[in-house]
Each structure stands twice: as C-alpha cells, then as structure tokens.
Amino acid sequence: MFLRAFQAKIFNLSSSIVFNMADNRLDKSFDKNSGGRRCISCGKPAEVGYFCRECFLRENPVILAFPEFDIVQCPACGRFFYENSWHNSQIEKAVERLLISRLKLNQDYFKFSFDFATEFPEHSKAGGNSVNGILNIKVSASPKSSPKIELSDEYEVPARLTYKTCPLCKTGRPEYFEATIQLRHPENETPDGREAFEGIAKMIREESAKHAGQGLRISKEEKFSKGIDFKLTKNSYALQVARSAAERFGAQVEINERLFSQDRSGRRLYRMTALIVAPNFVSGSIVNFNSGRKNGIYKVISTGRSIRLEDLQNGSNLILNRRSAAGLSALPKIKAQVLKRFPRLELLNPETFQPIIPENLKNKKLVANALSKDYAWIVLV
Known about the structure:
five-stranded mixed beta sheet
C-alpha cells in the first residue's frame, strides 16, 4: 500500500525534528541562519515562525478577498469618482484609494504598502464607454507575530474603467453659481490681519475642493482692493464652507439670501451671499483690549467659536465671543535685547536704545521665558 509522504513537526526551543514516513527515517533539521529551524512544509530554512516566507504567505495570504474594481472617470474634466465623491487626481491616486477602501486585508498583518500598475487596451473615452483591463498589485506587509520581517506578494486582478460624465460637466455652464462668499480685508489691516485674510481664503479653496464630489466648485474668483468674491455652485455647501472658514479664524459671518429664479416645478431658487470680514489678529497676536471692566494688553491664545486671551500683566485668561472680539487689532511686536536679568529684567528699546523695564514683571511665566533667552518680545503702544 502506497503511503503518502507527510511531515510531522515536534517543536523544541532550539530546533525542530521532522519525521518523514515515506522513507521511514528520522532527520534532525537544523539551520544556523534560521535559528536552527526549517520550514515544516517544504524543508527550507524557516524565517517566519516555523515557515519559510513562501509557505507562510501561502498559508496566510496578505489579501483575503478581491472585490470588483470599477474605476470611474469623467470624460470631460478627467476627475475620478471614489469614496462617494469626485476628485481632481491622477488614476494612480484613484486606484490607491480604491485599494484601501475595498480590499479585504488580513488583520494578522500591519504596515501595509502597495505598488500597482494598470493595463488597459486602446479605447474610446466617450461617456458611457467601459473597457476591461488588468490591475497588477504588489503588496508588502509585516506579520504581527514577526514585526521585523516584511513580506511581499503579487496579485493580478481584473479591473474595469468606466467613463461617466460628472454632475458639474452635465450642466455645461462653467460660470454658473448659486452662492457668493465675500471675503474682505480688515480695516487698518496689520500684518497679522493680512495673515488671517490669506488663511481664510486658503481654507475656502481647500474646503470647496473637498466637496467637489457633491457638485461644489469655485466657478470664479473676483479680486478687488477690498477683498475677494468667491462664486460657488452649491448654496448649501457654500454656506457650510463660509461658516467653517470664519469660525476657524474667529471671524463673524453674515448671511443673506435673495430670490433669483424658479425651477420647472415652480420651486423658488435663492442665491446666498456670505460676508466675512477677516479679523485683524491671529492666534499668537498681541492685542489691546479695553472694556468697562477689563483693560490691558493680551495675547491671543486661540481662535474659534470663541477667542481666548491671556493677560500679559498677570497671566489670567479672558474668553470673548466673536462679536466682542471684532474690534481687536494686533499690536506691532519688536524683538528687543535683554540687558539685565538680575535683580530685575531690563530690555534695550530698539528704537530709542534706552533701557526699559517691562510693565508685566508680575507675570512670572513670561519673565521666566524672557530670562531663558537673549531676546524677548516687547509691545509698543
């Protein structure tokens, strides 16, 4: 009777013993480079537990399942559809996001990385057309049981490239807009105010790009001496972008709507206008705040729905809403040399070259910071 060969493993701290029933012999398998172990499947030096790399991957594949890969691209603007929205990206980025979101990965691995290439035959890029091709994937990962070892495996899976016109290109009206965000420079703009203005403008552009898949885009930017008008294609998302950008920098936003049309069903269509006046300060600015009960020089600690200030005289905190903070304006900051540290801190006024004593010596935290450096910040008021 033919007895099919198989290998039985007996684990030992220093080696493994393989008993091969086919030739009825006892073989002491030992390899110095693998810590005295050989693969229990093929007999090669063991590198991952009691397996060689190839056998370990065969028993523990990195990718467990492959869903259908349908890559969708707009033939007009070239954008790709993934993660439920349209994106301005190259096909490599689209495939990467599809891989991450759709592949079923073996959770016994970590530190995944992918290399891939697409192969599609020559084809027409007309809307509605589809073409079948190949997606070559090389995935690298480390087993959690052997984190210092990186294993790589290669796969070839079918993929389909489909051309579908995106909602923006369907309208065929590049200048179309439903909303306007009016961003204005602060009055008597300071360098910090300019920084806030540019930060809000950048955030409006970035947040609009994030909602491109929902049909939002900036159809036009009109620049004036007083600021910028952003024309956007979707009312609801434009309002969200305006509020987020204003809140991030501690600015107020005023919303107005006016009727401009009706659709075929008779539903009224409104155009929204959001006015944002950039604040004249940013986080880290020094401001002079005067009210009935609170007067003094403050540092802006944070901006958002509320603005948090720190009194430079005594270190106490003050929280303002955005309306109350609208009149704040950053004071000029000048770097001054420290002349004396003891018995009290003295600075050299860089304009008069005369020694001066800071008024906020009671703020121990700020004084300690100044004493640790050769230069300190002073405020000219």
